[in-house]
Backbone:
């Protein structure tokens, strides 16, 4: 079974550390990769793809030097390898135009404003990863202990993989 990664892109190292700390409870099942720019994120995406692994969730700041987070997410949506990746924009400075662009062109799944509530960030990550594994993985059992067990059970029943008898 291939590994499913969480990719966090944030140009401020202190903020990136806090995001990773908040999500650390998921890291046993979903390793976290960190990038401080869109260019570094592209390199990480390439490496994960070459390893034969997947990116289930990308959490990206919008305002960064070089390419903005929305631009990176639009690129990800256009690439076959990352089009199914769940995308969350985490920013305090994206204007309405950038947010609308992200929703319309990057298929943005969520927008979280800075400063964020750590519990909310974890809940959003779990919800988005649950959706990702239900849509993209055959064997859902390994994810029941860390993600939304009720939704995973419903998906297993709907697929007919496990009966109630």
Residues:
């Amino acid at each position: 079974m291939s590994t499913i990664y969480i990719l966090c892109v944030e140009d401020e190292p202190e903020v990136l550390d806090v995001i990773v700390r908040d999500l650390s409870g998921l890291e046993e099942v979903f390793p976290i990769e960190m990038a401080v720019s869109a260019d570094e994120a592209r390199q990480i995406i390439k490496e994960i793809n070459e390893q034969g692994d997947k990116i289930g969730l990308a959490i990206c700041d919008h305002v960064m030097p070089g390419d903005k987070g929305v631009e990176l997410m639009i690129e990800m949506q256009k690439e076959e390898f990352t089009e199914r990746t769940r995308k969350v924009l985490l920013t305090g400075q994206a204007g309405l135009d950038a947010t609308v662009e992200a929703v319309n062109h990057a298929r943005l799944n969520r927008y979280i404003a800075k400063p964020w509530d750590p519990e909310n960030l974890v809940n959003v990550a779990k919800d988005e990863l649950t959706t990702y594994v239900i849509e993209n993985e055959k064997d859902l059992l390994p994810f029941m202990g860390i993600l939304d067990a009720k939704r995973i059970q419903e998906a297993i029943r709907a697929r007919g993989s496990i009966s109630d008898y």
Notes: The CA atoms of residues 87 and 108 lie 5 Å apart.
